[in-house]
Amino acid sequence: MDTSLSRGGPGLSRRTALSGALALGTGLLGAGLTACAGRGAGSTDGQAELGWIQPKTGRLASAYAPTFIGARLALQEINAAGGLLGTAIAVHEEDDEGSPATQATVAQRLLSARPDFVVGPTGSSQAVASVTALARGNAIQSAWGGADLLGDGTRFPGHYQLVFNTSRQGRAAAKFLFESRGLRRIGLLTENSEFGKSMQESFTRTLREDYRTELAGVQVFEPNAPDMTPYLNQLARAGVEGLGMFSGQPQAAVLSLRAMVNGGFAPVIVAHDLNYIDAYNEIPVELLRNFYGTAYRSLTYPRGGAPSGPAVEYAAKIRAEAGQLAFSAANSPYYDFLKLLATVVEQERTTDPERLRAAFDRVRGYPGVRAPISFTETDHCGIGDDAIAIATLLSARDEASAGGIFRELAS
Q: Given this model, what pLDDT does residue 322 score?
């Protein structure tokens, strides 16, 4: 597949969409929209079916809800264009409770329903468990997880990773601290999860192989840790000046910053995400000025400048639905996945996953709204190093950020 792919493509009938717990607000959900309970027969009736794995219950239900806004937007737009090959997409919903432990059961139900495509789950540990369990089927899946192995096309030929993975993130973060900031005593704070382990490997490997530097300190915490003070105290004692701080838990970042304030520890911070600006109101701005994170380059702007390109229109649509949760919603891979899927289906004139996988593996330079997307048969991480930038946290409060979706590039 060449680089001339457009973002447009076919869609699904307005009579098919999501209901019940998929709603995060009413803007995308119209009257008469229903979800499919599962046909158990793939596309034999000509109607493609989309499996949808989202926590509707459990402690992560509200936190992960914004990550599916882009998917609903894509379905609405595909809908308005007339359907996948003129036919509606049926949606098969599954509640994974936001837990890796439920993925085998969820996968078994999906394998029985035999959807052609699957979006979700969100979270690296959840994604690895899900993709592993669903590998026995034929569906094309895209989950939101940054672990490197999720982009391994040899191990998981049916999964496509439309996010920058931990190798790329770790490399960008380590390079920023060592090269851009000139720091040498670099530490790491990460959670004990699939994502955290993968980030630790990438961050450590980059410093060791590219800069012949070892970490000054490493602290690994449980995702539900109630207090980050012991971990931050250890890093402070180690003389850490620059800190890679990687966790998918909003509370962990808040607790970490609070511990830094209480301990008088103020390193330069690079996180994997710049999502939680509204949770940091209690944190002194002096500390937040040194808080940076990885970002999609198309969702950044230069100092003194403004956002530009197709992402501006995309951001406006996301912001209208997500409000204060817009950053998380805009960074989700599901919008790009479904729009790319619709384009590939139109070009190949089929919804058969077996045939579509070969076409996905030929995608080169598809213009996703967050980044160009390319795959090969063995590399299913569609986001390249050039698409990653380091941006500032505090720019989320600037007018140019469009409600925090865009961030100012680190100078």
A: 85
The length of the chain is: 411
Establish if 156 belongs to a structural domain: yes
Q: Mark whether 374 and 395 lie in a shared domain.
A: no
153 and 55 housed in the same domain:
yes
Contact 131, 151 (CB under 8 A): no
Q: Give the residue numbers spanning the domain of 263.
A: 166-306+389-408
CA distance 146 to 196: 10
Relative to beta strand 291-296, strand 388-392 is antiparallel
Residues 249 and 141 in one domain: no
pTM: 0.83
CA-based nearest residue to 168, from 262, 47, 296, 54: 296
C-alpha to C-alpha distance for 217 and 237, rounded to whole angstroms: 9
Query: Would strands 366-367 and 268-271 be described as parallel, antiparallel, or unpaired?
Result: unpaired
Cα distance between residue 292 and residue 269, in whole Å: 6
pLDDT digits (tens, 9 = 90+) for 206-265: 999 999 999 999 999 998 899 999 999 999 999 999 999 998 777 888 899 999 999 999
